[in-house]
């Protein structure tokens, strides 16, 4: 069994990731789940820098407020480990090393980053597939907040799944069934055919670019093509707690 995961949350000034919404979609079956995590601590207990970061992501990226959510993080993490224990491959799309490190530390295993196999960002896939579906949570938020398009973990999973299936079908014969090994082979073949070096580097950073809002450029919080955050550095330590 293969799964696709997407996470929305907060990347704090020190580069650590704090999840707020997690979605899991089965790659080969018609099943999916998503959860919004309850606040792990009182908002006022965090430093002014962290609170500023939380507000920026809530207003400009995923639209989920700090006070929202009813699922305890620790219980959800244990549930996810049980669900994904027997998974062959776990796929995620991120150009943020802090998200990858968080998920790998949580699950105790490696995950496959679709970004490294030339998967387009969800904003591009939404236009390419003419994707109109949205979850009820984000539909209501978009209506209230001037129809802003927020990042939705469940929608992102569905878009990445559709792209992976499309790449796999282009790789196999028409009547062959899609299996876990076939998917991974198709992704590697797609990378070889579309990238001469068969290597995709994560987005580079320019030290001369302006850094605002404690290391996060506000213009890049919700760009037209893909999200880039100046604190998503490869050497960021795995998240254990927020700096307060």
Number of strands: 5
Compute the separation of the termini in Å. Answer: 39 Å
Shape: globular
Question: What is the gyration radius calculated from CA atoms?
Answer: 18 Å
Fraction of residues in β-strands: 5-15%
Q: Major sheet: order of its strands?
A: 3-2-1-4-5
The secondary structure category is alpha/beta
Largest sheet: 5 strands, mixed
Mean pLDDT: 78
Helix content: 25-40%
Order of helices and strands: EEEHHEHEHHHH
Number of H- or I-type helical stretches: 7
Residue windows where pLDDT falls under 50 for at least 5 positions: 200-244
What can you see in these coordinates?
- The chain is of the alpha/beta class and 244 residues long.
- Helix content is 35%, strand content 13%.
- It has 7 helices and 5 strands, in the order βββααβαβαααα.
- Strand 4 (89-92), helix 3 and strand 5 form a beta-alpha-beta unit.
- It is globular and about 55 Å long.
- Mean pLDDT is 78; it is low at 200-244.
List keywords for this structure.
244 residues, globular, 7 helices, alpha/beta, single chain, disordered C terminus
Topology of this protein?
Layout: E1 2-11, E2 17-26, E3 32-36, H1 48-60, H2 73-83, E4 89-92, H3 97-107, E5 112-113, H4 122-128, H5 136-144, H6 153-171, H7 180-194
Parallel strand pairs: 1-4, 4-5
Antiparallel strand pairs: 1-2, 2-3
Helix pairs in contact: 6-7
């Amino acid at each position: 069994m293969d799964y696709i995961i997407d996470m929305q949350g907060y990347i704090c000034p020190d580069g650590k990731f704090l999840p707020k919404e997690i979605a899991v979609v089965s790659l080969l079956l018609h099943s999916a789940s998503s959860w919004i995590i309850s606040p792990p601590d009182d908002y006022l207990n965090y430093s002014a820098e962290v609170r500023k970061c939380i507000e920026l992501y809530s207003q400009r990226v995923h639209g989920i407020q700090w006070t929202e959510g009813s699922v305890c993080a620790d219980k959800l993490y244990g549930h996810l480990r049980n669900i994904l224990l027997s998974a062959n491959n776990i796929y995620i799309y991120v150009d943020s090393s802090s998200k990858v490190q968080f998920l790998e530390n949580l699950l105790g295993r490696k995950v496959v980053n679709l970004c490294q196999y030339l998967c387009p960002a969800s904003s591009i896939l939404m236009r390419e597939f003419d994707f109109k579906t949205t979850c009820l949570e984000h539909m209501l938020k978009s209506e209230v907040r001037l129809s802003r398009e927020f990042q939705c973990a469940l929608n992102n999973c569905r878009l990445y799944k559709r792209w992976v299936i499309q790449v796999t079908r282009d790789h196999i014969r028409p009547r062959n069934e899609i299996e876990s090994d076939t998917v991974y082979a198709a992704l590697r073949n797609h990378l070889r055919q579309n990238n001469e070096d068969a290597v995709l580097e994560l987005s580079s950073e320019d030290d001369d670019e302006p850094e605002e809002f404690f290391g996060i450029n506000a213009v890049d919080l919700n760009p037209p093509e893909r999200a880039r955050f100046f604190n998503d550095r490869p050497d960021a330590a795995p998240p254990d707690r927020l700096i307060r």
